[in-house]
Amino acid sequence: MKVPSPGESITEVEIATWLVEDGDYVEKDQPIAEIDSDKATLELPAEESGIITLKAEEGDAVNVGGVVCLIDTSAAKPTGVAPKQTEAPMEKKVDLVEEITKAATYAAGTASPAANKILIEKGIDTSTIEGTGKDGRITKEDAIKAVPSMGSTPKNGSRGTERKKMSMLRRKVAERLVAVKSETAMLTTFNEVNMQPIFDLRSQFKEDFKIKHGVGLGFMSFFTLAVVRALKMYPDVNSMIDGDFQIKHDFHDISIAVSGPKGLMVPVIRNVENLSFKGVESEVKRLAIKARDGQITIDEMTGGTFTITNGGVFGSMLSTPIINPPQSGILGMHNIVNRPMAVNGKVIIQPIMYVALSYDHRIIDGRESVGFLVAVKEALENPIELLMDNNTMKALEM
After folding, report:
1. Angle 391-394-398 (CA atoms, 0-180°, nearest 5)?
2. What is the CATH number of the domain that holds 101?
3. Is the entire prediction scored with pTM above 0.70?
4. Distance from C-alpha of 301 to C-alpha of 307, rounded to nearest angstrom
5. 252 an active-site residue?
6. 195 shares its domain with 342
7. Tens digit of pLDDT for each residue in 115-164?
8. What are the pLDDT digits (tens) for 176-219?
C-alpha cells in the first residue's frame, strides 16, 4: 500500500498511530493507521484483506506515494479470530529523579563540541549526563535528548515529566502562527456588545426553533450573519494579499475555529451570504461534530475569506486573535458577563461581550477596521432590523 494524497500541495505525511500490529490479518477497508498531514489527521483504510507487514514506524515521515505496508492477499483468514485493533501506545514517561540518580552513579564523560554547545544553551551540566558514545562520551544526540533539571527534589514530591513529539498538524500550526506575526502588519481593535437583544430573541424562539429545525439557535448564527453584513460594507476586510496584488472576493466563506481532539481546526462555511439562521446553525453543528470525531476533510478546511474564533466558550474575557493566513482579518468572541452599563441615562446591569478584530494593516486601514467592528456591534445590538429585516418569523423560518 502506498500513501494516498490527502489533498493538493501536500507532499508528505507522518505515521501518527498504527491501529494494527505487524502480522495481523486485516479486512479490506478496515482502518489500519492514522496519518498526520500539516492540515488534518486522517484514517488510512486497508486496500485489500490479508496478512499485513508494516514498512514504516510511528513518527516516520513518508512521502505521498511511498510504501507504508504490504498486504499478503493470498493468506487465509484465521478461523475464529476477529481483525485486531490496537490502541496507540502511551508515550513513555521519563522520571527525572531516577535518571539524575542513575547518572550520578557513572563517571562524567566528556562531551563532543556540538553536544557541549547544546548543553550550554540548555544550561545542563555535563556531569549530570550519561553519554552513550565510546568510553561514555556525550554525543550530540545525548545533548538533544537531555532534559534540564527542574531543581532539587522535595521529600514525597513527584518529579515525573513526559517527552512527546508534536504531531505534524501541531508543528504546522506553530510554524504558521510564527509566520503570521513576522510577515503581517497585525493590529487589533476592540469593542463591546450589549447581548441583551439576542438574549431576548433566543429566550423567545430557541425552543420552537430547535423543535422545528433540529438545531439550537446559538450565538454563532448571529455573529456569522453580522460579520457577512459588515464584510459587504467593508470589502477590504474580505480580501487578501498575493505578492503585489490585493485579491477581493465577492463571496463570503467564513472559517469557524473549533477545538478538536488533535488541536485547533478551522472548517469553512461556504457562501454564508446565501444562508439563513437555520442554514448557519446547521453547518456549524455538522462541521463541529466532524471535527470532534476526527472526520473533517481537507476540503472542508481549505479556503475561507474571514475567520471567527470563540474563546468565550473557555472563559476568555479578552484576547488578540492571530490572523489565519492568507486571510486579512479574524474576529474574536469572548465570554458574556453581566456588567453595569449606561442605558438612556441610567446605569443598569446588561450581559456584555468584548469583541476583538485582528487585521492586516497592510491592506486594511483604521477606518475600515474600526468601521467593520462597529457594523458588527450595531447588527448584534439591533438584530431584528439589521439581520432579520424586521421580520423575525420569516428570518427564523418559523
Report:
1. 125
2. 4.10.320.10
3. no
4. 11
5. no
6. yes
7. 787 888 777 888 778 888 777 878 877 888 887 766 666 667 676 777 77
8. 778 887 888 999 999 999 999 999 999 999 999 999 999 999 99
* Set 60, 208, 365, 389: catalytic member: 365
How many Å apart are CA 322 and CA 179, to the nearest integer? 11
Q: For residues 117 and 144, is the Cβ–Cβ distance under 8 A?
A: no
Q: How many domains does the chain have?
A: 3
Pairing type for strands 263-265 and 25-26 reads unpaired
365 among known catalytic residues:
yes
Question: Residue 248 corresponds to which amino acid?
Answer: K
* Domain extent for 149: 97-160
Q: Is residue 83 part of a domain?
A: no
What lies within 8 Å, CB to CB, of 127 at 6+ separation is 103, 108
Alpha carbon 227 to chain centroid, angstroms:
21
Q: What distance in Å separates the CA atoms of residue 229 and residue 374, rounded to the nearest whole number? A: 11
Residue in 29, 72, 361, 389 annotated catalytic: 361
191 shares a domain with 57:
no
Same domain? For 214 and 155 the reply is no
In this structure, what C-alpha cell is assigned to residue 358?
485582528
Radius of gyration of the chain (CA): 27
Please check whether residues 193 and 281 belong to one and the same domain.
yes
- Is 167 inside a domain boundary? no
